[in-house]
Amino acid sequence: MLRKTMPIAVFSIFCLTAAAQEKETTDTLKVLSLNELTVTSKYYKKYNLSKISSDLRLQSPLIETPQNIQIISAEVLKDQVVYNLIESVTRNVSGTMREELHNAVSPDIYSRGGYINAQRNGVDLRPLIKGPLGDDAAMIETIEFVKGPAGFMTALSDPAGSYNIVTKKPTGIKKNTFKMMYGSFDLFRAEADLGGLLDEKGKWQYRFNMMGMSTNGFMKFDNGTRLLIAPAVKYVASKKTSFTLEYIYQGMNYMLLSEAQISPYGYGTLPRDFSISDPNTKPYRAKDHNIFFTTEHKFNDNWNLTARISNINNEYNGSIFWVYGKNNHNPDILNRYYVYDGVGYNTFSAQAYIQGRFNTGRIKHAVMGGIDFNDKRNNTTDTWETASTIYPLSISNPQYSQVINNNGIGGSFESENDISGEKNRTKGHLYYISAYVMDEVSVTDKLKLNAGLRMTQSNADFNQYGTKTAASDLVVTPRVGVNYMLLPAMSVYALYDHSYLPQAGVAYDGSPLKPLTGKSYEAGIKKDWHDGTWNTTLSMYQIYRKRTILRDPVSNAIYQTGENRSEGVEVDVRGRVTKGLNIVMNYAFTESKITKDEKNPEMVGMATPNRIKHIQNTWLNYSLPIRKLPGIAISTGYQYMAGRAERFTTTNPEALKDFFRLDAGISYTKKKYSINLIVNNILDDHLYSTAWKRNDMYYWVQTAPRNFRCALTVNI
Q1: Contacts of 425 (CB under 8 A, 6+ apart)
Q2: What DSSP string describes 172-195?
Q3: I need a labelling partner for 497 at 20 to 30 A (CA). Which of 106, 274, 282, 671 fits?
Q4: Which residues, at least 6 apart from 28, have a Cβ–Cβ distance to it below 8 Å?
């Protein structure tokens, strides 16, 4: 239905925008703050944001925070013409990469040798298995990447860090923005961002985002539709108290869970559009419901309280063809198995924290204390280990549309694999309650100390394919940091931090997986240039982890290593470096190795999963100084990755070729209208991302050939 109504939606929005009057509105909300001021100069873009969201709970400016925190603005995403978190967002932050396996449903971002936490509006959404659903760009205000542990905002995490999606919220400012997008692979997309006041006194504010899109993929039999509805309302009860209610719905239908390709002949040896799927397969369907209710109360100029209750419910299910091993009789034939895959999870969160400032003599304190409760529940139904019928497919001469499930009998899929059986179901439950306190102590105007302590009680129980386990832990994680202002806009810092992360499931021997613990050491230097129009950050770190999850290279069984170590250097540059030129540039060197493995000592010295030694990204946007034709800007950028490790650690790793993708675009802006055209993978290179070898078969995720997108934006 969405695919049929999409052209109508696009046409309707176009008619609305074409009918808009040209006169400028004179209504300006008096409560407009300096940070929300819109600068209309064609040379200005908000690439460098110095103000973090309240979700991070920090009271100091970024330049005075002893940690590498990078913020991606919606303006950057707009210039790059991306439509969700999954699309190349990591190019804007040093040292981050995506495990591009579950492209339809899960971001799966890695940094500093580990899988980093997903958060939405400060709520811990780290899944027990897969998820959360990748956030659509239409609902994103900013993305905050916190390098290293962030105990001040989350109890559980890998020491690599986390990212936080800040969704669009009511501001009281009148806003009517419509966008239409068309591109390769029959991409059609329309979105609207509406906001303003519901009453004359300004007590009721609203924001309403909606989006609909349909597209075909670059691989055979790939297509999908997506829908977003995100209303939010804010009630300003007084100058000191406000209440905000947000609801976000994301719905998806799609044919391919992953753009993975499989072959016995080596990585990247298949045509880019080759698919192991079939048009007769059952499509995936996903639904994501989010509710956030936030109360903010300001006691006085120095003390304020924030409380938030949230519930996120997500489910998806569908079928996928998969190949487990090589056909020894005829390698040209892929032995496909038809796998049912269904996941449902729910996260309930309750948070409350207080922030305040006071002095003890000449020493200034900025304190924060809070308590978090988080309850995660997960249910899966799948046949990854029990699918039994083979559906052969020739690599050299594939024949499609001939698949009849149930070994040629037809009928319901469930009758083949008995998905209701115990060996096809898992159920997990993890909940924790955690208290935290932190003090940012300004010893002098230049020297600031940062000390925090979190105590967490977590409980978990799992029933994984018939094997039941339970675990309970009480953990204390400390944090100590120091920041020194060398100049008014230049600082150096050092940080020592701990992290703790319970693991979901059981090991190969049936024992419960033990929590991952980590210690992180970080030091760096930050500099704001030209009154903060652009910023540079240099950081160095070393991370020690215990009990990282790996898979046995022979049996594929899950087990935990003794220890691994990650270390590296990261450089980030972002902002307007000169008139008309806005950049995002970063580089990271990452080394992450197994240092102890009691089960497989031969793994010691091997790279941890998905490690990439060198990542260098550049994005440039330049407004051309043409007086007779103002408003034209050009963009170009590239992504480069070298020293890539496979998805799984093995004692005999395969070399992955370097990754280089070049993109470029042009845009034109005039008054209320802007049009932006971008071409991705200009060189049309045959590129692949996540890859691994198993059972004499090569698995990799294919990336798109040369493609374009064109977006028209109208502000009424």
Answers
A1: 379, 380, 381, 419, 463, 465
A2: SS-EEEEEEEEETTTEEEEEEEEE
A3: 106
A4: none
- Residues 589-635 have pLDDT tens digits of 999 999 998 888 888 999 999 999 999 999 999 999 988 888 999 99
Give the type of residue at 648: F
Average pLDDT, the chain: 88
Choose among 246, 85, 74, 143: nearest CA to 713.
74
Task: Enumerate domains of the chain plus CATH numbers.
Answer: 2-19+41-715 (2.40.170.20)
Chain centroid to CA 110: 10
Cβ neighbours around 79 below 10 Å, total? 24
Q: Which amino acid is at 463?
A: N
pLDDT value of residue 389: 83
Cα–Cα distance between 440 and 64 in angstroms, integer?
10
Buried b / exposed e over 341-353, threshold 16 CB at 10 Å, is bbbbbebbbbbeb
Q: Which range is least confidently modeled, 16-20, 461-465, 546-550?
A: 16-20
In one letter, which amino acid is 116? I
Q: Residue 137, SS3?
A: helix
Per-residue confidence band for 494, with pLDDT thresholds at 50, 70 and 90: very high
User: What is the DSSP track for 525-581?
Assistant: EEEEETTTTEEEEEEEEEEEEES-EEE-TTT--EEE-SEEEEEEEEEEEEEEEETTE
